[in-house]
Amino acid sequence: MKKLFVFGHNISYSISPAICNAALGVMKLDWHYALWDMPAEAVPQAVASLRAEDCIGANVTIPHKEIVFRLMDELSETARLAQAVNTIINRGGRLVGDNTDGIGFMRALREAGINPRGAHVVIVGAGGAARGVAFALAHAGAASITLLNRTQSRAVALADELRQDTPQLVAAADLADMPANPALVVNSLPASVPLDLRSLRLSPDMLAFDLSYRPAETPFMRHAAGQGARVTNGLSMLVYQGAASLKLWTGREPDVKVMFEAAYRVVTPPSTPSPASPENR
Ligand code: NAP
Questions:
Q1: Which of 3, 68, 180, 187 is the most buried (most CB within 10 A)?
Q2: So what's the pLDDT on residue 217?
Q3: How is the chain split among helix, strand and coil, in percent rounded to 5?
Q4: 170-172 and 144-148 as β-strands: parallel, antiparallel, unpaired?
């Protein structure tokens, strides 16, 4: 049996094994995807173990995406820009780092009815997930991205990198620069982080997108819905980034309907908007 993993720490909530094993089952592959919870100091050895012949690769989640980035033999352009790896592929003992968070996010965003071209966007957070999402939005033609992060220097650095990569983008890292009416507000902080949202102005014509999916309705989503905004959680993104990773490992298009069904056995689907139900696709 060939092996796949998700690397992370304190990730017992992760449903990646359920959704990926469901897809591998219908692909009739004798592969197994397992959760591997480890502290940062164990990451280099775990990464090295992926070079074995029976290892296909791994997903990487909080908080290891940026450590893993530094341990790869080769990087995709997407991972290089994001400076974060969420997918490791073992190519004959050489480890290739890629990042499918942006692909997953953009597909979920499209299904929620948002076209980011020309849109003003606010992203809360500047970690690995925020980086993947920010570059994807910049490449999709967003007009402006305002980054709000506890460690402001990280948000400033990311805004600088975004401007260098996409010179027409207005990228800022200060609440004072927040556009009056963003079309999209993305929360990339873990759901457990208490948020002070009083200064975030939200309105009914915007989408509040939380990358977290457990609980199904996060405090950020509750706050946004209370202000009349449309809300969604990160479940669709999770399925789509997982599907993109599976395509990198198998070379085949996985069955996302099966993956959503597996996800919904564990997590309640978001109520508004409801782009992610398998019946809708
Ligand atoms: P990360 O690289 O560790 O970044 C964490 C972010 O949260 C940073 O901006 C960090 O700010 C901030 N933060 C952490 N603790 C905080 C606190 N106590 N107060 C204020 N800010 C705090 O993690 P990540 O990989 O970006 O993941 C972030 C979240 O996104 C996770 O919940 C993950 O599950 C979710 N995610 C979902 C998907 C999906 O497919 N749905 C994909 C990727 C990630 P500092 O810079 O100040 O430390």
A1: 187
A2: 92
A3: 40, 20, 40
A4: parallel
Cα 196 from Cα 166, distance rounded (Å): 30
The verdict on whether omega for the bond into residue 219 sits within 30 degrees of 0, i.e. cis, is no
Q: DSSP for 222-263?
A: HHHHHTT-EEE-SHHHHHHHHHHHHHHHHSS---HHHHHHHH
- What is the structure's pLDDT at 275? 43
219-239 pLDDT per residue, tens: 999 989 988 999 999 999 999
Pocket-forming residues, ligand 1, beta carbon under 6 Å = 61-63, 65, 101, 104, 125-130, 149-151, 154, 188-190, 193, 211-213, 234, 237-238, 241
Residues near 68 by Cβ (< 8 Å), separated by ≥ 6?
7, 43, 47, 60, 85, 88, 97
Phi, psi at 265, each rounded to 5°: -75, -20
Confidence of residue 58 (pLDDT cuts 50, 70, 90): very high
Which tens digit of pLDDT belongs to each residue from 169-194?
Answer: 999 998 788 787 899 999 999 988 88
DSSP character at residue 177:
G
Tell me, in angstroms, the distance from the centre of ligand 1 to residue 28's CA. Answer: 34
The rounded radius of gyration (Å) of the Cα atoms in the chain is 18
Strands 2-8 and 55-60: parallel
pTM for this model (two decimals): 0.93
**pLDDT tops 60 at residue 31:** yes
DSSP 59: E
Take atom 41 of ligand 1 and give the residue whose Cα is closest.
234
In the reported structure, the alpha carbon of residue 253 is separated from the centroid of ligand 1 by a whole-number distance in angstroms of: 28
